[in-house]
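Q: What does the assembly look like in three dimensions?
Context provided by user:
Components: two
Sequences:
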Amino acid sequence: MEALEQLKARVEAAVPGAQAEIVPNGSPANQPSLSLDCGHARTVAEFLRDDPDLRFDYASNVTGVDWPEKTIKEKIKVKKLVSGVEKEVEEVCERKTPAYLEAVYHLYSMARKHGPLILRLRTENRSDKVTLPSLTPVWRSCEFQEREIFDLYGIIFEGHTDLRRILMWPEFTDHPMRKDYVEPDDYEYEPTPHDDVLTRARQHYPGGTPA
Amino acid sequence: MIAPSATLELGESGEPQLLEVSLGPQHPSTHGVFRMDVSLDGETVVKLKPVFGYLHRNHEKIAEKCSYLGSIPYTDRLDYICSLTNNWAYAMTVEKLAGLGVPERAEYIRVILSELTRLINHSALAGFLLQDMGALGTPLMYAFREREKILDLFESLTGARMMCNYMRFGGCRCDLPPGWIEQTKNLVANFPKFLDEFESLLTGNEILRARTEGVGVLTPQLAVNAGVTGPMLRATGVNYDIRKVDQYGVYGRFKFRVPLGERGDVFDRYMIRILEMRESLKILEQALRDIPAGPIIDPKAKLRNLRPKAGEAYGRIEGPKGELGFYLISDGGPNPYRYRIRPPSLINLTILEDMCLGRTIADAVVILGSVDIVLGEVDR
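A: Here is the predicted structure of the complete assembly.
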């Protein structure tokens, strides 16, 4: 398989208007990925599947990732006038990373026996603009996995034929895989509470035992 | 000649009346707590929707709160028939993420254990499939007799029959006990006898043929597009075995063939598994002959408080049920930021409805049996 830079250039040449961005990967696994813009994602996916050299006919793994807003503290050296003399002073500046949800697709080619090609699609934020184009019309294998992402992360896939909860029950309202999910307080009586169970028991029953 | 006794009843609107059956979640042929909502026209399936989640415990969330080492025992409980292949897939992904090597002896041990696991899984599946067809007891007990012999080997090596918790990043937990290789060689030498017995009992059986041939046909195009992997994919004739494609571990050193089906029906899926067991035995013979001496774990591997550099890795192996993958994202902390399992059983169920439409309800049970699911992995 060609390098990701070449592939990116080919994708941008084949699908007019498509924007792809290479996301580096810091681990020794050396699996960088390609971040696509949502507007052209399905056309790009069709191109990747049908191009005779690429033939990514098999979407192996589809998953969601939650990236809440994070403040990163960075130390920057700044030149400043300190009592008339110019000195280099370290200053701490805070930077906020944007919050978004992400769907990650691992593609392989069964015909050409190469891969993986990793695609990423990002939502605009984590609260109200959480829509992504569904790739189920391109690869059927995304059907249950996109349903799972919808269920556990709350990404809405446009164009999915059967977007329902899959693992949680239909009446459930939250998305348990999000980082800020709060577990329900469903403490049950335990005769010999200990450790953190004891803390919760005290909250429910003053003295640690009922009655 | 007997006249057809029942004609299709028509509802008030003139539409044929459909019978909706909820098959499961407690049903002997659903292999666990799995439910299918089936709409029947007479005996014919016109709609089938699988319902999941009865065994869901959000394993991925638990693992994100757990250290890298702490998740290994949990992986045993995914596909509880094949705990050792789950261990391997997870350990391999962490090795990719942290850049660890594996000593040669450990790689051989992993191959041996993974092929033994494949024997367990395929023989149990063949037994269960026949149980679904009404061959109650006998074939399953024959298969379980052989499975128990392999579980004894696992017990003497890892201390547990099924929840082995054996592999570690960078190698394995402990070395083989004395005499283990001889015992395994003995088992491998005797296993073809069981396969011959099993096949002479069943493969040519008229009832088995009638119930499986031409049932649940899957086309290669649909199988590839729907991400079907493992014996189910190869039964349709697509040559894709990750042991050959990726050559992970030391699989590149062994000579074995990949059995392929022609029609993609239930019979092909049954037969592929029998043939794969014979190929597994070939790998086992070579691995047991060539296994070198040496260390079993990378001395650089740090098991406790492992903190890989920020980044991500996707690792996959050819599990007995299909492609078993793990996807890990590290943010430099002691536990994974994102931990994802690609469950072959769940994704192989995507096309269950396509295979069952137009067949009878009795066939749907057999088709589900041939998919080979374990609910611990489907629901996670």
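Follow-up: The helical segments of chain A are 4-14, 41-50, 142-152, 195-204.
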